[in-house]
Amino acid sequence: MNKNINKNIYLHSIACNRFMHICACVVKRYSRLVFAAVLWSASHGIAASFTFAAFGDAPYTEAEEAPFISIIAAMNREPLAFAIHVGDFKNGWSPCTDALFARRRDEFALLHHPLIYTPGDNEWTDCWRAVGTADPVRDPLNRLQQLRRIFFADDYSLGQRKIALARQSTDFPEHARWTHAGVLFATLNVPGGDNNARQPHESAARGKMVDAWIAETFRVARAQSLGAVVLAMQANPWSLGGGIRRNYGSMIATIARETQRFDGEVLLIHGDTHWHRIDKPLIDPHTRQSLPNFTRIEVFGSPFVNWVRITVKHENGRIRFDGAPGG
Questions:
Q1: Where are the alpha helices (DSSP H) in 233-305?
Q2: Measured between alpha carbons, how far is 85 from 100 in angstroms, rounded to an integer?
Q3: What is the rounded CA–CA span in Å between residue 324 and residue 327?
Q4: Predicted confidence (pLDDT) per residue in 234-287, tens digit
Q5: DSSP 8-state code for residue 46
Q6: Element containing residue 296 per DSSP (H, E)
Q7: Taking the model in full, what pTM does it have?
Q8: I want to staple 271 with a disulfide (CB 3.0 to 4.6 A). Which of 57, 207, 209, 267 is the partner?
């Protein structure tokens, strides 16, 4: 009796060992296939699906501070590649103090993901509106330099998990660029309102740098056979009627020209007019038709404190952008 039991146990052990060996071989073979597929995708420039966040134009008031912290907490619960804040982290009439800038930097540091920020008009070009404050705090150029010292001091993103960024120059460190899964991202210092038309020399000099950064970004994307370019800035360059707003014509012409030369998809993310939308407003100057490979996403804005979840998908040989409210 005991001999039969021991024999059965022995045979069962052999069978189990053989089964485990077969399973291990299958897993090993499957892992190799998956790894090979990943290598093939990378070598062919195929972008894996990923999600990132875009937000801006908030917080404007003390009442919006808590909701702002809440959306950062919400983003922390998401598997995001990174987040982009398109500027205007205050309203346009309150003082642009160093203390407020430091407060926003500390709030940005609460985000677990990399955070890339680009300035809005409310934190520099509109600072002259704050009545009763000292001259340096009302000087737009002084405030821009302070933003650069606080938010763009090195070649890394904000947030707790850092990523390396390429900067256009030490004079324009807010113009950043990075690549993720076959998509090239770039930020532009293009404030809303009128692009600082009150200071035409500054606006013209910065405009040349913006145009150069856009052209350089597309050149890099073409050279690396990337599937998409994403530009992020504060200003909405289009009027309600679809025309180009004052002082944004050169930049839009550059984007249109480069979009037409680019085989991939182009996404522009901006804020400014506080109206979340996804559309195709860029017009071919010759045909007067929308450029099919260009999409615009505008983020939410005060009093609606929310973020946009943007999913990047590779489908049928092209990259697609899907946007949805984060909360």
A1: 249-261
A2: 16
A3: 9
A4: 999 999 999 999 999 999 999 999 999 999 999 999 999 999 999 999 999 889
A5: P
A6: strand 294-298
A7: 0.86
A8: 57
